């Protein structure tokens, strides 16, 4: 019976192609768009993920998201260190700067200054160089994306060469030597990220009275970071959040204050609806065209369960084909883009598979109703 | 003959479509008996109730009242869920439009009832090739229906009807889409296949050219069985046997 279902399905090639295209489109849109959205939203808190060591982030109470750092007086560091339950606390500095490249071009970059002694906050994953190299004179690390894209140097022949270890940058008229390339999460605005020590970052940046952006604190063993964050906030008058809470804050700030979710959500929904309509109509037409044959099967003695199996199999086959092609296209598009990394998480793939499944169930249900209500006596009508 | 149970026995069978003022009485108390091995032709003008009658006999349509026993089973009181199995095991169908699946080869079309019955594909195809051999279509076993002539398609449909070795074959205008020579060949084939095995056949037809193959002809008019006009029933030729 299932073989009859398959042969009947593939005997209607044009309709099968139509159904598969509809589902592939839906699958593509339901995979690629949310993946792009999640990748963009992931950039909103990538800095928090990159600085993985601290349990608690301490900041000005007006800070709404990680890029919204408001300068703190250096004296606040001591206050945080004095709170019971704090194992250690270090400053971190974030600011924007203009980097002059060896070829004379300039590019805006995010400058991060990490604790001179511990280097806490420095990138963990180094593609070239070593974390301790940051202690060398004028040393800076550059993130991989920045080195390859905005900080790449234009060669005499017009080609671009990624920034590499040994290259010299000029930051606010200060010499900075690239001693390492680090793998870090991309920033929301795709700005290059330059890491150096806290003291050196202050010298690179324009003079400010307050320079510290955040205080990074670690809880002593056995101390709940959430409880510690509350203690720090109460005792210092600053805002303190666990890394997870601060990540969520940053994420929701962008969700609430930008059209990212609505725009990507709309495109995803349109993909689902268009795919559902195309596939639904095609599948219904396919069933309609084969009603007489379903009636014959009914008249001969096929049970409703057998007919159900046939329709579900046909629907599942086009669903699997459409989903596979859609995922393939989405992957191809992701691979083709060298500037924007898109991650397809298992949950995301399950989400689009669920969408395709819903379309298939809807399409099959409409067709099934038609088939199951079909009077087998219809076979005697010419 | 009386000692043998009839294949079909209808008594006071009625069928009403719709209700109230729009109700249409399609059958008005039909009494009909079809004996084992008998080839009965049901004739009458369009709309007289022939198709309704064979649809009820074939258990694809519910009657309104009366009795309709097929192979000892009252199809009017049979549970809906039992009907598909009953049809699969006991009935064979031949349709005016052949109703072959255009996506399946001739052999696969013949194998459809067997596949519904759960036969393995290869076994079902082997059996369907035997049947195609019996109807002279073995060489076309792998051909799709649209590459066959009307007569060839009807022969494939006949092979399909006989796949489950049914006790009763129901044919609806099996020759109306065929030329007279092919129509006669088809009826001769049905007759040969049924008389050998004492299967009963009910043929609904307008085609007077095939009346000679009937063991008995029953006329219908306005939902009733009516006396047959003498001119209609020519004596059976022995050649049919």
Task: Identify the CATH homologous superfamily of chain B.
Answer: P-loop containing nucleotide triphosphate hydrolases
**SS field, number of helical segments of chain A:** 12
Structural class by SSE content of chain A: alpha+beta
Q: What is the first-to-last residue Cα distance of chain A? A: 25 Å
User: Percent range for helical residues of chain B?
Assistant: 25-40%
Largest sheet of chain B: 6 strands, mixed
Share in helix of chain A: 40-55%
Q: Indicate the low-confidence ranges of chain A by residue numbers.
A: none
Largest beta sheet: strand ordering of chain A: 2-3-10-5-9-8
Number of helices of chain B: 6
Oligomeric composition of the shown chains: heterodimer
CATH architecture type of chain B = 3-Layer(aba) Sandwich
Basic shape of chain B:
globular
In percent terms, what proportion of residues of chain B is strand? 15-25%
Question: How are strands sequenced across the largest beta sheet of chain B?
Answer: 6-7-8-3-9-10
Describe what you observe in this structure.
- The complex is a heterodimer of chains A (382) and B (241).
- Chain A is of the alpha+beta class.
- Chain A contains 12 helices and 12 strands.
- In chain A, the strands form 2 sheets. Chain A has a 6-stranded mixed barrel with strand order 2-3-10-5-9-8. In chain A, strands 6-7 form a two-stranded antiparallel ribbon.
- The radius of gyration of chain A is 29 Å and the shape is elongated.
- With 241 residues, chain B is of the alpha/beta class.
- Chain B has one domain: Rossmann fold (3-Layer(aba) Sandwich).
- In chain B, the strands form 2 sheets. A 6-stranded mixed sheet of chain B has the order 6-7-8-3-9-10. In chain B, strands 2-1-4-5 form a 4-stranded antiparallel sheet, covered by helices on one side.
- In chain B, a hairpin with a 2-residue loop joins strand 9 and strand 10.
- The longest helix of chain B has 18 residues.
- Chain B starts with 7 loop residues before the first strand and ends in a 15-residue tail after the last strand.
- The relative contact order of chain B is 0.18.
- The C terminus of chain B is likely disordered.
- Chains A and B meet through helix 1 and helix 10 of A and helix 1, helix 2 and helix 3 of B.
